[in-house]
Fold:
Amino acid sequence: MKATQIDNFSYLVKQLPKPVALVNTSFEITYVSDTWNIFFETSQNMIGNSITTLFPHHYGKLWNNQLQACFEGKTTQEVQTKLAPSGVEEWFEWTGSPWYDANENIIGAMVQIQDITERRAQEQRYERLLALMRAQSEITKVGTWEYTVATEALTWSEMTKKIYEVPVAYTPNIDDTINFFKRGHSRNTLAMLTHNALHKGAPWNKKLQLVTAKGNAKWVIAAGKPLYKNGKVHKLIGTLQDVTERVQQEIKTEENEQLLRTLIDNLPL
Structure:
């Protein structure tokens, strides 16, 4: 009867949809799923072999340490890579957990493999996109922000905080944001634009002046637009671009043009 139970258990493990191997405390594989063999592209009989010697050397020591932790009652997780026959690098995540007998004694470890190649590729694409956006933000001096209506939570990107000249740990709110803008036309305009966006769904894009946390005056192009959910505005998102140098250059050009015009107007015929 016991032998029949073992055979049934072995057959059950063989059919598991994910790559799984059960390893005893001597690091020997005692049960393994067919999907394990498929994933590691091996046709050899793994039963009775040491798991630390079946794979490239750089896996061996790492797997030994992780499995030893499982034998001590811990759950471990590790991300590793392997080369497919085509030479393409594949990523997989393996999770090790203690394997108990009927008396709750640890008799080994259960190792489960998950192919995360596509997930890792998406993460890398996302990381590259973030790096590109950060670089573009630094060059164009454009920051982003997001305001959630229900919670009144406001978040600023790193560049937005640089424009306002506040610490990285600074937590903004909508009232403080408006008060950063220069008293008078700029502050009143932004307050009106924010109100119209929240209550009328109107986007905006205006050149305004603000005073940073360090007291420096800056010209910015403030833009925002509402996002709807169930027919109601639930978020505002937008950008803030520092155009101080450009505006100063425009002002200088206008002053030079005015000076030149004055000189021409006063020259003899």
